[in-house]
Specification:
This protein is α+β, with helices and mostly antiparallel strands and 118 residues long. The chain has four helices and four strands. 3% of the residues are buried.
Length: 118
């Protein structure tokens, strides 16, 4: 078993072969559910799947939902830009372009972890 990454207050991630996990599945499930761990299942040394806690699963689902909303918002911005171009005969005024660029940056920041930059 190899430790892939560790961070304070974050689950640790371990790699385990599928054969090893199969032999003691309930122990690995308990480590994920109660031990603040994530298990990457490997086959012939290559990652195939992962065991994660329900908390992690819910966080991933929430992130997917949030990402879908932001992607819809960005599509609306793109449609607005196209509408501006048509109404201004293909020219988007510099201030409009900057405002749109700023809107995109703000929405993308919502997806990034604290400390990351666009």
């Amino acid at each position: 078993m190899y430790i892939i990454a560790t961070k304070e207050a974050c689950p640790t991630t371990h790699q385990v072969s599928i054969a090893e996990a199969r032999a003691d599945l309930s122990a690995y499930i308990n480590r994920v559910a109660h031990g603040n761990q994530r298990i990457v299942l490997t086959s012939r040394g290559r990652p195939k799947a992962a065991l994660v806690s329900l908390e992690d699963l819910h966080a991933l689902e929430a992130l997917n939902d949030k990402t879908a909303v932001i992607e819809d918002d960005l599509a609306d911005v793109d449609a607005f830009v196209e509408q501006l171009r048509r109404s201004r005969k293909g020219v988007v005024m510099p201030d409009s372009g900057e405002a749109i660029h700023q809107m995109r940056k703000e929405r993308m920041r919502e997806l990034l972890a604290p400390g990351e930059d666009i």
